[in-house]
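User: Sorry, what's this?
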Amino acid sequence: MPSSSNSMHESDLVPFNTTSPPAGPWLIFAPHYDDESFGMGGSILQAVSQGHDVDIVFMTNGAGGGTGSENEVTAIREKEAVSACEYMGVKGYRFLRQDDRQLELSSQLVESIAGIIRELRPASVFFPSPLEYHPDHRATAEIVWASVQTLQGNSPRLFSYDIGNQGPCNVLLDISAFRERKRQLMSRYVSQVTKHRYIELVEALNISRTFTLPEQCDAAESFFEFKYHPGLTIQHAMESWMARFFEESEPHNRLVSVIVRTKNRREMLNHSIASLAQQSHQKMELIIVNDGGEDVEDLVSEYTQVFHSVKYISWPSGRGRSAAANAGMDMVTGDFFLFLDDDDWFDAGHVRNLLTALESSNSLVAYSGVKTIATDPASDSDGRVFSEPFDRLKLYSNNYIPIHAALIDASVLDTGCRFDENLDVYEDWDFWLQLCQISPDFIHVDIVSAYYRVGGAHGFGLRGGREDLRRMIYARWCKTWRLDDITELLTRLEKH
């Protein structure tokens, strides 16, 4: 299939202009005493000068950054931090005194951080980039992110800042007017700057961040603003943004429509949509079909800024899985589409892997491996994997491809391909047999990247057992099969 034209430019990857400081109040999390000043001291000075309230939380005791006893080093560094806060005009600061280089995600620490956020109610929260080298820097990012996930209602805007590593950036603040004051600020940390060239190194980073900025900008500090949504991990939030760097070599500009059928499973639906928000392929259309369940439009609306477009249809009473699938297909505007029921989910690379496979072939269908997750841990169905090479004859006799395993070229919709709304079981199998008439070969991507729950009302293949319907499907499709295929199928049956 032809590739779409490339449209990714430098300005899509890094800012070419600075912006005003984000709205206050600000809450800044610093792993150690000095990280706030080295990473974003110029921005703090600017924010305070504009009247923003700023609070800083120092996560560790910083005892690894000096000689002497732990208490002695901590006391020296806390005194320096107080001096730095006073110089910046920051009146709110607190010390958590976690062990230096031992910072880890824990429920107790998450609860503590969440309590601070609820107490201060910041408009903007800052933490180190999750791509920083120091383990405490990365841990701070993970802890703050997990804490925000426990909050009810609207979350603050979330920004990471660079300290020792020039990470991804979508916000640049011009600190030219505060360059000298930042130097004076950093010099307050005497115990650190006298044993290493931190001031020179930080200033070099600030200068390098002006690479794409107008000539009059002498120094800048960089930030990454996250698109936060409940259930989205910080790893996947970062991965999905970084995927744009590969759009020149991969078909990332193709629009993929995702049809999600749902009914009275709000919590699971949120988890399913979150797995879509985490996809490394970002250009997606979300289509939610509510088949007579409780209204979830408020939940769906939370994702309007994440996807290329969001469509929602809700019926007052249930019409069935097949009708919901057809309604979703009627709303598809993407180049490709796939299904995801509200109790299932994808790994971050699911859509990209399938899209890449289809773009490099003449097939209209590509599918991945799917793993079962049993609602009852003792079930022997837990951990079963469906990931077999494509075998058209096997598909003639039995369905072995879960519906959400596959990405489908939207051109099949022009042929009138539909779900049979008279079927309450085997409708997925019947749909695959239709597609076999249009695309005789499906592409198998031998990676497990999709999951579905089994047990109770969940699970692929658990609604079967209707021999009358199996015979009806055979009668419908066997007349389209080639004689050679029927002969081979009978030969296989004889061997078994």
Q: What stands out?
A: The longest strand covers residues 443-454. The mean pLDDT is 91. Residues 250-466 form a domain with the Spore Coat Polysaccharide Biosynthesis Protein SpsA; Chain A fold (CATH 3.90.550.10).
